[in-house]
Design a protein that fits this description.
Blueprint lengths: L4 E2 L7 E3 L6 E6 L2 E6 L4 E2 L8 E3 L9 E2 L5 H7 L12 H7 L3
Antiparallel strand pairs: 1-7, 2-6, 3-4, 4-5
Length: about 100
């Protein structure tokens, strides 16, 4: 699995939850500048309390989790815990046709 990278506002999954969204992308020469209109300064991106990843890949320290390969996801599944053969009656009642 790769290392975590800093979350950036240029990512398609990045979202500003401030209402209305306070993020503004503007060009400064050949560079793109991410500006926060709420504090009127550069956007803190992953460190801001209003930042959110729509793919839910942002860690609490403002990093982006890399997608796990299928090999890693299969290794994390616990195979020693069997599924119960019967469902508890109170839960089964919820799935009964009406």
């Amino acid at each position: 699995m790769g290392s975590n990278v800093d979350c950036t506002a240029l990512c398609k999954s990045f979202m500003c939850e401030k209402q209305p969204p306070a993020i503004k992308i503007r060009k400064q020469g050949n560079k793109k500048e991410i500006w926060c209109t709420w504090i009127d300064e550069d956007c803190d991106q992953g460190w801001c309390i209003h930042s959110k990843c729509t793919d839910q890949k942002m860690t609490q320290d403002g990093k982006c989790k890399q997608a796990m390969s299928p090999v890693h996801t299969q290794e994390q599944v616990k195979v020693d815990e069997p599924y119960p053969d019967t469902m508890p009656k109170d839960i089964a009642r919820k799935f009964r046709p009406r």
